[in-house]
Every structure is written in structure tokens, then in C-alpha cells.
């Protein structure tokens, strides 16, 4: 059955694709799997190790009062440890416990405290059990939910697929792609990248816009002529014509003659008219061609009492619009002055629109030629055969894998429905191309379930799936021709080849997007450009140029470290950064001119590294003051990978910053105010970790400028860490972070793995993170080595088969 109109087809595609998207979204709702709890082994006693009896006793003495069956603080029941603490389900508890006991967070301040020797004995026993779990655990790759392309990935994929620059946020002022959800700190997490009816509408509209820019559908066989005779024209008084002066309506005889056209191919057109003057008085009349929106192309016409033919070349965009010719006024009279009846009138014999003109296949844009790899009659091909070749080549690239004959046939049937009499080959092929661009196999990264191949229930990804994971990890875009070629040759699953390809991609300029997509979210500076203006009396105004530079500085540092093989620790304390004139002035550094960001050597150790960057310091402040709490939390999360738990719901506000003493206002330091706030036991444990780290950065104000005073008070940047170590100022903080570079590397490994996989880290991934961090440390802490280790890891190369009850049927369209 032929589909007679384009709107009918689009409705058909929308319904079909909508059903498929809903199906795949439902399939993607399967949560990231958690291995079933392993029953405790039937053993009489624990194997030899640390003082087991003492470890158990210390756990009971200091921990189980708050973590038992009735009082499960932190949702942790240590009474359930039972006779075998090395059961896999306790791994998370031990891992969290080791960190908190070591950092003196647990037991809390208001509870009995172990002696240093007892604390070390308890830690040794907990770590021993954690090591036992890791040693006996069955490796598991975890399960990644099918992921929809986020807005950045969609933009880059369209660029690499069709050679078209397309921004989902700005492609149409009346439309906007829905915001991407975020989870685990990133916006490429499969579990939160949902699809809605609005997504479907926008994807369909975007596909139309994209193909308008990429391909040509009319004009190869010569321009098309649309003729409108007098009986077909709409005749109006000029006062009611689009774009005319309403004040002139009804006062005089001039007229407009218009016709409606639907332009499918934007480009140059010839607008022609036959105009007949009813009298031959040789007077000049002002005429105009009018386009949609009232645009004027004026010309003069002499009244000769006969037909005159005129032509103008006009540029038309896509879509329905109005073309017209109109009589404006006599040439020798002011505009819109009522005409003399003796002047006579005009009639229009016909209007013609011819075009598009100037189009030929050999001069078609490269974007068009890349899509239309076959033409009818070439080698004796029928229109249907040529369409099949075009569809197969395009779908293979769009779906990032080979397509089956059955898939090609389904799309060619859409071509059949659109290939009606008089339709151009390109316009008919555009229909299945549109359907491909709204297919789940384009919009989602789908990895079909397969039977398990390992004891842990995993199966190895094939070469095309690995190529897709690799390209979206490093480039946030589709695989290039080289990746697809290596996948087709069956070599992508070789870890050595995988590393070779990863290094090739890192050297490519497209890898710079890793700084934009990953680093901005890891370091939490993506929101710098939307920060509310700070208090202008204290901090001045943050202009757009400065905000852009504040956001770009950490991104460019990350990109430089990755591209040049520098150590990851350059993020903490390099002797260089990236500045333009405005940001350099903000830092009170001389010698940097112009808006362009460039590498600048630093001689002042108070600058350099993400800890001291204005972008980081601004997003971790309030509009009217700094926030040591936010900054300390940021250090724990982004640098050490040990974020504190969320604050309790009843947390109060800070005391006021000014009090009255002897009838006079007196400033209260921020440190004093925080001391009062954290006096509650429920607040003290976390603040002991966060506040000293945040106060070490207190010399930087709320927009990242250096200061020695906060108002009238000298800045106090000193603090005491939970383990008793003193910390004073940013230089000591940098030194401490560098001394703890292994924790920083493990944190970076965890963030990169989360971003690369598009899911949260599971307990089974901990050994992978530790191994990647260890390999990176052994190679001079190079960032590119860490990226390669993530790529070669088991979770990146494998996927877990779901349990039978959770298995889902993959959609076919």
C-alpha cells in the first residue's frame, strides 16, 4: 500500500518508533544486577590470620551497640556477620568501615573510643576479611543498561555520521531537547537516561532538520516549475497582505496577488510574473515581489497597456510559505498615497516559481555524496536496488554494526511506500533515512543479551560492541571507519589491539571531548557558566568571558595531561595552567593578553591545580561567602573518592556572621560560626573530615581570588585532621594530596570506570579499580595509562547475563 502523503508517513514512523522506544526503555529498566548473597560456608572456624578472637571482641565492644538488628544505624547490621565475616555480602560494610575507622569517624565522638593499638587490631581484622572476600570472589563484569545517547553524544554522532553541525540545544529557537538525567555524577548513565513522548517528537523533528542540511532531494533532474494562473492566485487589498502597512488598507486600489508553496529543498529559486497594466499612460509604478514574512524585492513597471514579464532570483528556506507580487504606489508619489483613478490598475496573468536552480549531482555537497553511495541505472540497478544499497550503508554506520538483510528490507519497504509517481529518488530514500535516525538502534547503544560464558555469568562483547564502547568513552561519538574495520576483521577483542586503538584515539583531537564530557562532571565545574551573580559589593561582577575561562581552565589542563602523557598528579600541583587575559587579571597575574586561553607557566605556588582554580572555588561557595563545608566535601568526593553521607534532615543554619557586643556590631569568623554549628554529635563526625580540608582553601574568596582578610578579620586557614595531623593553607593541602596520590589515582579510576561503563560501581569492580590504579602508579601515574587500563578491564570488555526472570526481549526496530 502506498503512503500518499508525507504527513501520513511521519505519523506512521512516529507510531512505530514510539512503540519501539517505549519497549527498549522498559527493557533498560532492568536494574544493575547485584549478585545473589552467597550462603555462609559450612566451616567450624576462620582460617589463620590476625587475632580473630580479639577482632571479633573489638567489633562487639565498639560497633554493635549502634549497628545491630534493632538499631541499624547507616542501615548496617553487624550482628548479622555471624560466624563467617568473609561472606561476600559484607564486603561493602567492611570497605566502608575500614575507611571510617581509619579516619577516626567511627566510633563517633560521643561513644567509647578504642586505644590506638585496639584501632589497629580492629582495622587489621576488617581488612583481612575484606581481602578474603576479594580472593574468593567470582569475577563479574556487571550489567550495563541499554543507554540512550545523551545530548552531547547525539551532537557528535550526527557530526561524524552525516558531517552536519547540529546542536540539540540551539537547532530551533522554539524547541529544546529535554535535559539528560544524571546519576553517580554523570549524564551518560543508562539507568537515568529515560525516554519520553517529548523525546520522540524532538528526535523526529531533528531528523528532518538534519537531513535538510545533509542531502539534496530536488533539482538534480533540472528545476521544477510551479505555475499559478490568475484563477489560482489569491487577490487581496494590500492593507491585508502580509508585511504591508495596515494603515493603508481600504484607502486605494493597489493589490497583491499571492500563492502558497511548500518548499522541500532550500536553495535559489526564480520567481516570475506576468503583469498586465490596464492603461498605457507611460507612468512608472512601484511593484514588489513579496516573500513570506513581508520581505520586499522592489522593481518598477511602466504602464504600457500590455503584459510585462519579470523575473527575480530569490533564496527560499524549507517549509510552507507565501510568494506574491504587489502594486505598491506610483513611482512619482510618496509611498502609500492614494492612487489617482486615472492611473488605472493592474492584473496578474500568472506567477511561476522555478527551482531549485544551480544543482547538479557532480557539485552536490560532500555530505550528500557520502550518503548516496548508489544511484539508479548505475550498473543496471533499479531504483529499489540502489535504495537498498544506500540504506544498508547508512544503517550500518548509524547502528554501529552490520545490519541484517531483514532489517534492510524493512527500511526499503518504507522507500517503496514513498516512491510514488513523480517523486525523486532522493526524496523517496529520505523516508527510510529519517526512520533510521529515530530508530532505537541509532538512539540507543544496545548490547543484546547472550548466554553466559564464565562462572560469574558474564559473556564477552563482540568487536562492534567494544568499538562502540571505546568510541563513546573517549570521543563521546560513534566509531570511525578504522574501528569498524578492525571490528569486522575480528581483532577488536584482542586486548593488545584494544590498547592500540585506545592510544590512537587519545592522540586524535576528538579525544579533547573527554575533558568536556568527563572532567567537567568529575570536577563539578559544568555549572560555572550558570552560577548566580555573587554579591557585587564584595566580589564584583562575573562576566561571561570570565565564567567561560573559569570553566575552560580545568578542562584544558585535563586535555593537556591526557594528550601529552603527563602524570595524573599534574591535576593537583603543576607549575603551569591555562589562562586568558581576564582570568589572569582575576588571579593578579601579569603578561597575559587577549581572550584566547593558552598555557602559562606559574611562579606562584598558590596557583596551579584544580584545588586552587577559580571555577572549582566558585561552584563550592555561596553567592555571599565561601563555604569550607562545600569545599571540604568536594575534596573528599572529587579528589579522595570518599564522600561523606548526606546531612541529616534536621541540620540547622549557621549562626549569624555578626553579633552585638557592648552595643556595637562585631564580626564573627566563619570558623567560630561552624564550631557552634557542628557542636551536635550528629554533625561532628562528618565535619571533622570536611572542615579542615575546606578551611585550608579559605584564603580564596567566593570567586577564587586570593585574600589575606575576610572583612576585618585575618583569614584562619588552619585545622586539625581526624587523625591528629595539622593542616594549614593550600600549599600544605596540595602537599598532603600529593602524598596521598594513590588514593587520588584510585578515585580517578573509579570515576573513569563509572563514566566508561555508564553505570555505578559495584563491589565486584573494586579489585578492577585497585588494579588499574596500581598499574597507573607503576607507569608514573600517567593519565593515558589509566584510560587504557579502564579499556582493558573486565567490566569494559564483558557484560553480565541477567538471571532468567530478568531477561528481556530486545526490540527489533
Automatic annotation (TrEMBL):
Keyword Signal found: yes
Signal peptide extent: 1-25
Alphabetic keyword roster: Heme, Iron, Metal-binding, Signal
Classification of source organism: Bacteria, Pseudomonadati, Planctomycetota, Phycisphaerae, Tepidisphaerales
The protein's name: DUF1592 domain-containing protein
Parts forming coiled coils: none
Region (Disordered): 30-50, 640-668
Record-annotated Cytochrome c domain positions: 50-165
Organism of origin: Humisphaera borealis
GO terms of molecular function: electron transfer activity; heme binding; metal ion binding
Record's keyword annotation contains Aminoacyl-tRNA synthetase: no
Amino acid at each position: 500500500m502506498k503512503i500518499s502523503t508525507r504527513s501520513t508517513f511521519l505519523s506512521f514512523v512516529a507510531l512505530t518508533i514510539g512503540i519501539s522506544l517505549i519497549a527498549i526503555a522498559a527493557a533498560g529498566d532492568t536494574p544493575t544486577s547485584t549478585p545473589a548473597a552467597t550462603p555462609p560456608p559450612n566451616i567450624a572456624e576462620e582460617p589463620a590470620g590476625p587475632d580473630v578472637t580479639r577482632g571479633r571482641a573489638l567489633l562487639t565492644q565498639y560497633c554493635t551497640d549502634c549497628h545491630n538488628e534493632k538499631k541499624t544505624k547507616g542501615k548496617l547490621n553487624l550482628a548479622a556477620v555471624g560466624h563467617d565475616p568473609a561472606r561476600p555480602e559484607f564486603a561493602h560494610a567492611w570497605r566502608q568501615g575500614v575507611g571510617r575507622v581509619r579516619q577516626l569517624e567511627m566510633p563517633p565522638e560521643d561513644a567509647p573510643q578504642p586505644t590506638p593499638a585496639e584501632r589497629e587490631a580492629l582495622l587489621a581484622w576488617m581488612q583481612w576479611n575484606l581481602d578474603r572476600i576479594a580472593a574468593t570472589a567470582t569475577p563479574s563484569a556487571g550489567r550495563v543498561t541499554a543507554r540512550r545517547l545523551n545530548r552531547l553524544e547525539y551532537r557528535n554522532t550526527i557530526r561524524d555520521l552525516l558531517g552536519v553541525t547540529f546542536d540539540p540545544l540551539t537547532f530551533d529557537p522554539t524547541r529544546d531537547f529535554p535535559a539528560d538525567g544524571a546519576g553517580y555524577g554523570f549524564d551518560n548513565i543508562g539507568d537515568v537516561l529515560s525516554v519520553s513522548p517529548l523525546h520522540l517528537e524532538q528526535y523526529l523533528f531533528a531528523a528532518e532538520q538534519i537531513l535538510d542540511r545533509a542531502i539534496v532531494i530536488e533539482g538534480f533532474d533540472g528545476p521544477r516549475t510551479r505555475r499559478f494562473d490568475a484563477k489560482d492566485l489569491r487577490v487581496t487589498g494590500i492593507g491585508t497582505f502580509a508585511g504591508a502597512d495596515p494603515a493603508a488598507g481600504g484607502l486605494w486600489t493597489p493589490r497583491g496577488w499571492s500563492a502558497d508553496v511548500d518548499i522541500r529543498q532550500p536553495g535559489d529559486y526564480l520567481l516570475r510574473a506576468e503583469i498586465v497594466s490596464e492603461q498605457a499612460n507611460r507612468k512608472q509604478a512601484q511593484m514588489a515581489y513579496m516573500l513570506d514574512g513581508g520581505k520586499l524585492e522592489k522593481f518598477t513597471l511602466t504602464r504600457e497597456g500590455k503584459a510585462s514579464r519579470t523575473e527575480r532570483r530569490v533564496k527560499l528556506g524549507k517549509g510552507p510559505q507565501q510568494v506574491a507580487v504587489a502594486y505598491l504606489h506610483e513611482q512619482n508619489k510618496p509611498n502609500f498615497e492614494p492612487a489617482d483613478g486615472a492611473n488605472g490598475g493592474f492584473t496578474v496573468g500568472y506567477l511561476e516559481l522555478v527551482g531549485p536552480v544551480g544543482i547538479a549531482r557532480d557539485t552536490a555537497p560532500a555530505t550528500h555524496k557520502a550518503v548516496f553511495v548508489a544511484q539508479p541505472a548505475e550498473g543496471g540497478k533499479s531504483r529499489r536496488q540502489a535504495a537498498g544499497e544506500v540504506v544498508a550503508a547508512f544503517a550500518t554506520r548509524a547502528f554501529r554494526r552490520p545490519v541484517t538483510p531483514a532489517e534492510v528490507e524493512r527500511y526499503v519497504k518504507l522507500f517503496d511506500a514513498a516512491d510514488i509517481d513523480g517523486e525523486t529518488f532522493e526524496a523517496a530514500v529520505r523516508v527510510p533515512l529519517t526512520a533510521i535516525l529515530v530508530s532505537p538502534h541509532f538512539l540507543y547503544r544496545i548490547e543484546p543479551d547472550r548466554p553466559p560464558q564464565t562462572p560469574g555469568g558474564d559473556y564477552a562483547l563482540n568487536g562492534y560492541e567494544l568499538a562502540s564502547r571505546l568510541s563513546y568513552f573517549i570521543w563521546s561519538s560513534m566509531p570511525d571507519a578504522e574501528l569498524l574495520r578492525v571490528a569486522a576483521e575480528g581483532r577488536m577483542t584482542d586486548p593488545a589491539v584494544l590498547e592500540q586503538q585506545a592510544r590512537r584515539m587519545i592522540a586524535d583531537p576528538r579525544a579533547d571531548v573527554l575533558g568536556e564530557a568527563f572532567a567537567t562532571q568529575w570536577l563539578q565545574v559544568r555549572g560555572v557558566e550558570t552560577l548566580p551573580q555573587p554579591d557585587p559589593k564584595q566580589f564584583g561582577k562575573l562576566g561571561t568571558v570570565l565564567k567561560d575561562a573559569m570553566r575552560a581552565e580545568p578542562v584544558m589542563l585535563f586535555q593537556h595531561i591526557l594528550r601529552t602523557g603527563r602524570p595524573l598528579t599534574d591535576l593537583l600541583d603543576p607549575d603551569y595552567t591555562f589562562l586568558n587575559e581576564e582570568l589572569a587579571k582575576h588571579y593578579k597575574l601579569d603578561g597575559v593578553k587577549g581572550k584566547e586561553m593558552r598555557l602559562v607557566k606559574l611562579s606562584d605556588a598558590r596557583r596551579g591545580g584544580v584545588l586552587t582554580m577559580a571555577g572549582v572555588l566558585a561552584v563550592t561557595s555561596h553567592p555571599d561567602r565561601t563555604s569550607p563545608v562545600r569545599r571540604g566535601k568536594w575534596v573528599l568526593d572529587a579528589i579522595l573518592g570518599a564522600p561523606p553521607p548526606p546531612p541529616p534532615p534536621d541540620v540547622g543554619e549557621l549562626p549569624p556572621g555578626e553579633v552585638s557586643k557592648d552595643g556595637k556590631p562585631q564580626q564573627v569568623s566563619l570558623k567560630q560560626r561552624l564550631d557552634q554549628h557542628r557542636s551536635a554529635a550528629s554533625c561532628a563526625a562528618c565535619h571533622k573530615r570536611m572542615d579542615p580540608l575546606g578551611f585550608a582553601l579559605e584564603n580564596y574568596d567566593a570567586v577564587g581570588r586570593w585574600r589575606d582578610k575576610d572583612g576585618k578579620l585575618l583569614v584562619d586557614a588552619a585545622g586539625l585532621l581526624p587523625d591528629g595531623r595539622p593542616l594549614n593553607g593550600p600549599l600544605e593541602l596540595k602537599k598532603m594530596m600529593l602524598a596521598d596520590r594513590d588514593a587520588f589515582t584510585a578515585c580517578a579510576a573509579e570515576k573513569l570506570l563509572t563514566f566508561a561503563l555508564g553505570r555505578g560501581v559495584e563491589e565486584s569492580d573494586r579489585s578492577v579499580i585497585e588494579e588499574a590504579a596500581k598499574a597507573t602508579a607503576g607507569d608514573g601515574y600517567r593519565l593515558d595509562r589509566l584510560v587504557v587500563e579502564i579499556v582493558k578491564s573486565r567490566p569494559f570488555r564483558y557484560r553480565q547475563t541477567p538471571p532468567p526472570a530478568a531477561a528481556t526481549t530486545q526490540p527489533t526496530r
